[in-house]
Input
Amino acid sequence: DAGVIQSPRHEVTEMGQEVTLRCKPISGHDYLFWYRQTMMRGLELLIYFNNNVPIDDSGMPEDRFSAKMPNASFSTLKIQPSEPRDSAVYFCASSLTGGRGNYGYTFGSGTRLTVV
Amino acid sequence: DQQVKQNSPSLSVQEGRISILNCDYTNSMFDYFLWYKKYPAEGPTFLISISSIKDKNEDGRFTVFLNKSAKHLSLHIVPSQPGDSAVYFCAASEGLKLVFGAGTILRVKS
Output
């Protein structure tokens, strides 16, 4: 298995532009999570899906952020319009069991977003 | 408010010695605790975990200790190796999601 695949690896965009981050989870994993890593706040959960259905989006910062999972093998995180404070590394992770038990998540390599 | 706290931003240890990484939490309902390791330009990778009903779990050079009364857990790495240099995240399971600490940078000097 190729693991969790994220694209792009790096994204530099101008303030006000739309940004779309993509994720392909591990086949068979029912849970998909989007996290954001910043120096100040560490890893923050933005949203997670179970069987393609959004379960908890309480971590999404504001209406500028949206996430979709149209099928079991693909998810997007969109920021529109982007702002400099959105600059961070965005991670996608997938899991068989959610956060329970000893399995944890498998993370992708992340997308480093820079908004100038 | 941060439910999982790693109060030491960084730690430096000599090769061969013990590394001790600490983590405190506030939510007594957490049922599993996990440690992840992260190298630059990579995603975090699962390292070791412990159930809230246990107080110790060991896997090779890595041991996690849980003190529920103090709401504290620690990761011991013995002996430390230069390849252990990374960011270590403590995480706690809250239902179906994991809550992470801010991370501790470990540097193992050779």
Remarks:
- Chain A touches chain B through 28 residues (CB under 8 Å).
- The two ends of chain A are 36 Å apart (CA to CA).
- The mean pLDDT of chain A is 92.
- The first strand of chain A starts at residue 5 and ends at 7.
